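User: Structure tokens for this complex, please. No commentary.
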Amino acid sequence: MKKASSDTLSAYLFVGPTLSGYLLFVLGPLIAAIVLSFTHYDLISPPRLVGLSNYARLISDVRLAVVYKNTALFAVTAVILTVGIGTLLGVAVNKRLPGFLKYILRTAYFFPVLVGMIYAAMVWKFLFNRDLGVVNYYLHFFNVPPIPWLTSSAWAIWSVILVYVWKNVGFTMLTTLAGLQNISEELYEAAKIDGAKAHTRLFRITIPLLSPVILFNVTITMINTLQEFDSIVALTNGGPGDASRTVVMYIYDKAFRSFDMGYASAIAVTLFVVISIVTLLQLWGSRRWVHYT
Amino acid sequence: MNYSPCSFPALVSPDPPCHLSFACNGTATQKAEGQFVTPELQTPSHPTSITALEDKPRRRQIFVQALPFLAFALLVTDGRFSAASAQNAPSPDTKGNLVLFDFGDANDKQIRDAAIARFNKRYPNVKVTDQFTPISSWSDYLNKLVTQIASGKAPDLIHIATEGVQLAVRKNLVIPLDELTAEPSGKELLSDVDPALVKGFSVEGKLYLVPVAWNNMMIYFNTKVFSEAGIARPSNDWTWDDFLSVAKRLTSGEGPAKRFGFGIPYFNFGLTPFWYSNDTAVLKDDLKQSNLTDPKFLEALKFVHGLVRENGVSPDPANTDPNAVFQLFTAGRIAMTGGGHWPMQFFKANNFNDFDVVPWPKNKVQKTVFGADGWGISTKTKQKAIAWEMVKELTSAESQQQAAGLGVAIPARRSVAESKEFLAQPEHAALFYESLRYAAPVQAPANYAEVERILMQHLSQVMADEVKPEEALKAANEELSAAMQQQAAEGQ
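Assistant:
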């Protein structure tokens, strides 16, 4: 009995730091945001209850639809590219390459992960400048006219996605490599004996056994992309117009530029609901394609 | 308007504006070599002082008459001659803590540290904490201030700019200073400052901040490029047509090797002189209604758009970093750009000296923009008297003189703006202070950040050639009008 209560105490002590952090930095702000969403609050004057009027504003806000569309496009495309390319890179650098080349490639692909997003974005901003940037400088030699990477609605969101994928694909590669280390070599040997070709081994052994890692990458990348902020602020500041503005940037604008905390909180609550639904759908859908060994 | 400082003869003036002090325009004055000297060693340079020196018997008489004042001055100021040596100043034994909400870079930090050190010599028991906040834009800075106050940690002194005055007053963040500036030592703080700067910090006739520095917008040009192109320095009253003609001549090369005539300072403050010089603005004069339907605004916007598109004299203003244009200017990729005094620190750091300034070109009127920064006292402070002493030190001539040569901003005090250090570079540096003659403050209603956001967001679509200027202004006008109406409703 004594042992059991001692174990319970230990368990609480182990869970304690994480739980207190969760209560303080996740649950607390979440409850605060929900409460604030029913108020008018400008940060200085005390909050004033306004009922559901902030939620009523959501319906007629045309900009909100635009920023949600951008966020969805950014999230879906970035997830597909980051996880797809990252997984392929992981498989590629896991091959029997010469030692030095293996490490050089792994380091090269992983290096952007180590660089702060804001620094990387500032460099890319210079590279992408239409008239003075390095990218258009080299494209000029191939008779490509100057591309308005960051200043055209058609290009801005794709440029932002490109930078995001460049920055984060190394992390996906790394987790994929870790996952590949756990796949027994015997499975491949047996498959080879049975006459399975490379692509068969990839789709029948590697990918199914990597599926938990892929699920992890998809979930993490999806959550990160739905919350992406710093790179877009540095690259395009959401422009031109709202062409590359995401929901998080819109929340920031409303909260800290318009001092409209109540409405910003209402938008934040919608984002919370969207992220929750997307995550639950991913977990539910994963039962069909994720294989745990 | 006469801004002549009263120096030595102030002592014998029947009604000295700053008695007990040798120089009404500051604490210590400077020699030609730029060294600080104690007032007794100072060589008066003011014409009235020279007259006094030539009249030796009278000078001796004056000196004898002045001796008791001098002795008293030395006694009360502990040998220092600070503008902060106020009447009714708190006791030197005063204890307390002062928190400053401040912005700037490493240079500003040095200046502030020196002011705090001087203050602590007078008030050794007052601990001063300078909360330096990195600044990317005025909007963000104000947001941080408001957020900090909302969290219950209101500072005692607040360093803000024109862009934040209306918001600060409306939100009751700063106290009126008129009572304090009515004191002799308070009067001294403003006696050497252009009235335009004082007015810029006044709301409904009450002064809320003591100006310390300000910035405007001028045209910077690369003297080397001009010389190579055989173009003379433009005249001070040049026009948009002259400007465009020069920009076209300076634009050369093709593709990646292209050099552009003008780099647009692509931020709200930087673009404002284009509106102002066409006798228009984003808001009407009352700062309560949108003015974007003004045909003169459309004309100005088309001119800016034309610099990039029709005329090709400016690169696409893609970079949202306002300093990027100065980097390109330094690199010789653009021959002219717009800026206040702040790019000077960047030029100095890069050892770039081939530049000079010329006033903003005029179209309908000659008019540029200015924005000042100053120190105010928080309504939340419980140490008003000691906070006021700190304000005096932060805005003193010493502080401004220290900043004069750094290329951060234009000093609020005319005497410092006329000092050798400030005028050392560029050749026409005197034009900075002179611009107050035709400059107007940046329009900064309480919802400044929102106004800026609306303008720049719609402008970005025009500059990207995706929306016609007429349509963009129509949409911007609708959004801005709604924002101003909401602002008015909240203010009631």
